[in-house]
Write a structure and sequence with these properties.
- The chain is mostly beta strands.
- It has 2 helices and 20 strands.
- Helices cover about 5% and strands about 55% of the residues.
- Strand 11 and strand 12 form a beta hairpin.
- The longest helix is centred in the first third of the chain and has 12 residues.
- It is elongated, with a radius of gyration of 26 Å.
Amino acid sequence: MNFLFLLLLLVTASLWGQTSYVPPTQVLKERGSQISLSGDYFRTSKVVDHEGEKMNLTDGQSFQRMQGEINGLFGLTDDFNAGIGVRFRQQSSTFDFANEQIDASVAGVQSIAGKLLFGFPASNRTQFTLEGQFRYAPYTNKDVSSRDDLKSLMLGDEGNEYSAGAGVTYSSLSNNHFTFRGGWRNPGRDLSKEFYWNGEVALQWRPIALVAGIDGVTSLKNSTYENEPQERPPWNGGASQLYNSINREWMAPYIGLNYAFSPAWRVEFRGQQVVSGRSTDLGTGFGIAFVRRMDQSTEKVIDSEFKSYDLEATVTKVSDKKTYVVIDKGLNDDIEMGMKFDLYEFDYVGGNVLVARGVVIKVGTDKSIVKLTHRFNLAKEIKEGLVGRATLK
């Protein structure tokens, strides 16, 4: 049954124009929306204390975490987005206490998050974005005061998290994307402030994208308990060092595969390995996410694919800044001022990609000048030979 489902996805993908990858810096247009449902699993292989000493888990010890998130992002304007999300967490651990093996677990809502994105206009295939996030933790951890308390793990760090940062993405002509994001973050009460950073490369094809990157955290080393680690709250983290940390740091490379099975829907697979750090856990994680993205620009692309046009023209010249083009049609072909043209990259083996849209600002006898007003595919170059299509009023 699973095989038939995967086969159906593959067949369906060939029938649509998909978006298999969207850079994290790309904002939604006004009234656009993105809804995602994701889950990830992490298992500890080693722990690293706040002095950087690595320790293997002993026989019988273990720690695993499962998380699920529901997130929504909405385009308030063409360059300003707002989002909200909820994270659920379930953890279990087996560890030794007084020569006895203890099994402990916990589950619940770990946080409720709000997010803001502001995107500057793309220039030369480069997109700059500002980002901010606030994450509310609706729980408190229980102090360990008896043996029975050891059966319940802490859900995470107490206190609210907030961060501010920026990102930049360069999209090449060959449909590859290079992204770097970073910023400042307060991860919770009594924890050190830190810098978070991420570098990512994506190779994108029509239904599939390959993704590779690295996540990292660099501590500003101002934890409340930096000089008195024994004074930390008596919370039960089991066999893990992930929480109640001192100046935490880590570095985690990852790889991924995205698959688009409709114009709006895609699935993302991720595998990640935490390879170094301090006051944290080393281990392996896996994740999956289902994403539905309906952008205004995407809707325009879909509509245009099924639109009937009355005439075609060819781009014969492009301005230096690629904001104006000249087409080989004019008054003799009923071209008028204000007429809208859709520009396609077209070939005779099935290629028919909407690249941009523009409006006629000057008309000659047998040629016209079109000012570009919208870009739909930054990976495609504005160049001579593009096909312009328009509808006569």
